[in-house]
Design goal:
The structure holds 2 protein chains of 2 kinds. By secondary structure, chain A is of the alpha/beta class. Chain A folds into 2 domains: about 10-85 and about 305-325, no CATH class; about 95-295, 3-Layer(aba) Sandwich (Rossmann fold). Chain A has helices spanning about 5-25, 35-60, 65-80, 95-105, 120-140, 150-165, 165-170, 190-195, 200-205, 240-250, 265-275, 285-295, 300-325, and strands spanning about 110-115, 140-145, 180-185, 230-235, 255-260, 280. Chain A is elongated and about 70 Å long. Chain A starts with a helix and ends in a 7-residue tail after the last helix. The model of chain A has no long low-confidence stretch (mean pLDDT about 90). In chain B, helix 1 packs across helix 2 (about 30-65), helix 2 packs across helix 3 (about 70-90) and helix 5 packs across helix 7 (about 170-180). Chain B is extended. Classes of the chains: A alpha/beta, B mainly alpha. At the A-B interface, helix 3, helix 6, helix 8, helix 11 and helix 12 of A face helix 2, helix 4, helix 5, helix 6 and helix 7 of B.
Chain lengths: ~325, ~220
């Protein structure tokens, strides 16, 4: 088979999976397919046997193709979607700190949430966004949404749409403009934050759907950061948490927590330890921990099993690679 | 003039921004407001410039039939479809139920997330082939990576259930992230900050002119 034919075959298979997944989402098939604990354990056993086979092959001096590694990772990520294995998720101190900071806000407090990310980071950050918005709105906190990334405001709307399906929130009869508002995207990176320190309305003359700032009951009396009780920043890069800390926290004294991608989160520990950040959700694990705390089990919790499997697969491959490395003699290239 | 004017603008704006940080009162506060507004305006235009530049580069690639010109056609068609549908649906184009939001949710979002997710596959492959305990430094890095990867997922605590609670993988990972990792990050960030200050000063004073183009 020629390379071109193989490429077309792969594209065809991926397309087929996409169509099945889309139809599954629309008609609700995906959630109905669940392996029993026995089948789940058999799948785990097959994966382990596969890894043992890879180890033996590697010890024989034959490195497996990268396609085989990809296959293992693919299986490790996809299969857990259908498994019925439960995991105990332990809350880390930084997640607990964020939860406590929001929990102690009196009813009616104003919370500013900045959506500084786009769809590539959504698998990690969207579950955080949903859980955070759910917790705020279910505790009668007033939420002001904005974005320094062009797609941020749209991601916020997707999160709002998802949480409004929740019965508890639906029963509250929340009103746009009174209980929550989406101010939309504003270009200008950290300069937007800086101007907001003086006057919100100078940066957001209208909201996401074009309504004037002064017509929105929730924000018409919000002049600057001094009217905000807590802020939560969802960030995947620049502009993001670092810029918010440097301008809004350090200069204007805003109390802020953040949710970051797993890649970015390590940098935030410096701000967290210095007290510049009050709470941190790092990666999907942080999202899952927060979902557990606020009792809103969403995609973070659901996908943690996949992440556990993926991490175990990567660790297994590192071990296999190193076993072969030492067997073949230190420093010798495999 | 092509060099002097940009240098003058850079110098004035740079000095004003430094001064207004330490003296946030009139006239610096007012000038800061003007410059910030101008930055937002320039930023908004830059988005258009970026989009049009992408179209131009893609179109030139197709016309010249350069390598991978087929992908450039996909870019142009996708761009035109999104823009056309966005304009056709008017001011409410981002509302739920519109064609634009459907494309965003079911085409753009999954495709973007897929590109990011490919990282997991390459990390696994690279780990298998390159992540070796060749010396003490590499071994320490390897061990830290191991403990963080195990401690950041619930399965880590399941594996280390027999250890005292404070020594289970999640606690060890938290300790590594809070102390040794933070110390390293601080060193890097302070180094970057010092570098930024010196580079910024060079740009404000007109010593560094590489951003203007040309050789000198």
């Amino acid at each position: 088979m020629s390379t071109r034919a193989k490429e077309l075959l792969v594209v065809g298979i991926v397309l087929l999976f996409c169509i099945i997944a889309y139809l599954g989402k629309v008609y609700g098939w995906v959630d109905t397919v669940v392996f029993s604990p026995m089948v789940s354990m058999i799948v785990v056993g097959i994966i382990i046997l596969g890894l043992v086979f890879v180890l033996i092959r590697t010890l024989q001096g034959r490195l497996i193709n990268r396609q085989v590694v990809f296959l293992f990772v693919g299986i490790a990520v996809i299969m857990p979607f259908f498994m019925s294995i439960t995991q105990k998720i332990r809350t880390s101190p930084e997640v607990q700190q964020l939860y406590d900071a929001v929990a102690e806000l009196p009813k009616g407090s104003k919370v500013l949430v900045s959506f500084d990310y786009d769809p590539p980071s959504a698998p990690e950050l969207q579950p955080m966004a949903e859980a955070f918005l759910y917790y705020c709105l279910s505790n009668d906190l007033k939420v002001i949404i904005m974005g320094l990334w062009p797609q941020g405001a749209q991601q916020a709307n997707l999160a709002l749409e998802a949480i409004m399906k929740n019965e508890k929130l639906a029963a509250k009869g929340l009103e746009y403009g009174k209980d929550y508002v989406n101010l939309g995207y504003q270009a200008g990176n950290e300069f937007v934050i800086q101007r907001m320190g003086a006057d919100f309305s100078s940066m957001f003359r209208t909201d996401y759907s074009g309504r004037h700032y002064e017509e929105l009951e929730l924000v018409k009396n919000v002049k600057n950061f001094s009217n905000i009780d807590y802020s939560f920043n969802l960030s995947a890069g620049y502009p993001g948490t670092q810029e918010w800390v440097q301008v809004a926290v350090d200069r204007y004294g805003l109390k802020m927590g953040c949710g970051n991608t797993a890649v970015q989160a390590p940098m935030m520990y410096t701000y967290l330890n210095a007290g510049q950040l009050v709470g941190l959700l790092g990666g999907m694990n942080g999202a899952a921990e927060f979902e557990q705390l606020v009792k809103y089990p969403g995609k973070g919790t659901k996908f943690m099993l996949s992440q556990s499997f993926a991490h175990m697969i990567v660790i297994a491959f590192i071990i296999i690679g190193n076993v072969a490395f030492f067997r073949s003699g230190r420093g010798k290239k495999l | 003039m092509r060099r002097e004017v940009p240098l003058l603008i850079t110098g004035i704006v740079g000095v004003v921004f430094v001064l207004q940080y330490f003296i946030p009162h009139w006239p610096f506060s007012q000038v800061n407001t003007w410059f910030s507004d101008w930055f937002s305006i320039v930023g908004a235009f830059a988005i258009w410039l970026g989009a049009l530049n992408l179209l131009k580069i893609s179109a030139l690639k197709v016309i010249g039939k350069k390598s991978d010109w087929g992908y450039a056609i996909v870019i142009i068609i996708s761009f035109i479809i999104m823009v056309a549908i966005g304009f056709a649906e008017g001011k409410e184009f981002r509302e739920q139920g519109t064609m634009f939001s459907w494309l965003y949710e079911y085409v753009y979002s999954p495709l973007s997330a897929t590109m990011f997710a490919l990282l997991a596959f390459f990390v696994a492959s690279a780990s298998y082939r390159a992540f070796r305990a060749r010396n003490l430094d590499a071994t320490l890095l390897l061990m830290a990576g191991f403990l963080i990867m195990l401690g950041r997922v619930p399965v880590g605590d399941s594996i280390s259930f027999f250890l005292p609670e404070n020594y289970q993988f999640s606690q060890v990972a938290s300790w590594i992230m809070t102390w040794p990792q933070t110390a390293g990050q601080r060193a890097i960030m302070i180094g970057i900050a010092l570098g930024l200050v010196s580079t910024s000063l060079r740009i404000i004073l007109g010593i560094e002119r590489a951003h203007l183009g040309g050789g000198d």
